[in-house]
Write a structure and sequence with these properties.
Distance between the termini: 10 Å
Helix content: over 70%
Order of helices and strands: HHHHHHH
Main location: membrane
Pfam family, one: CRCB
Number of strands: 0
Structural class: mainly alpha
GO molecular function: fluoride channel activity; metal ion binding
Radius of gyration: 19 Å
Subcellular location: Cell membrane
Family: Belongs to the fluoride channel Fluc/FEX (TC 1.A.43) family.
Length: 167
């Protein structure tokens, strides 16, 4: 098995690991640029999708719900794809995961909308929205990961959950 420095998906830092602490200052500008550029693209995609989906200010917030669930599904897909790669690009997860999909999903808006629903007397809708988003987001990540893992496993000849050998 290869060491942690050879298996890194991106510059995530675990401060308990000395090698991770040493890595922290080595490429902050590239990571910041990747996350920033991805965030702009993700936010623009969210704004575009929200503009075309029907929205009822007094009802269930369909645009935000659709954005968050589709974003979570794509996060699962991304993580499965990166997990299957022996040497994924170092900035793939910061750009696509944190940047694009982090900018695309909007759980802050989800919380604000739930609060607004409750404040306007639609407490049942607010609770349904909170519960459906939480359950749906977790399920979407799992489905995205599991389906992609299964598809990429059959295509690569590996077992689901198995990484390819590095060499």
């Amino acid at each position: 098995m290869s060491g942690p420095e050879q298996r890194r998906l991106d510059p995530d830092v675990d401060m308990a690991v000395p090698a991770d602490r040493a890595e922290l200052p080595t490429h902050p500008a590239a990571v910041l640029a990747a996350v920033s550029a991805g965030g702009v693209l993700g936010a623009l995609a969210r704004a575009g999708l929200s503009a075309v989906l029907p929205s009822d200010p007094a009802g269930f917030p369909v645009p935000t719900f659709a954005v968050n669930l589709s974003g979570c599904l794509l996060i699962g897909v991304l993580m499965a794809v990166l997990a299957k790669r022996a040497n994924p690009p170092a900035l793939a997860r910061p750009f696509l995961g944190v940047g694009v999909l982090g900018g695309y999903t909007t759980f802050a808006t989800h919380a604000v909308e739930a609060r607004q629903l409750a404040a306007t007397g639609a407490a049942t809708t607010a609770l349904a929205y909170l519960a459906a988003t939480l359950a749906g987001a977790l399920l979407a990540v799992w489905v995205g990961y599991a389906a992609t893992d299964r598809l990429t496993s059959s295509a690569s000849g590996t077992e689901p959950g198995q990484r390819p050998a590095t060499g």
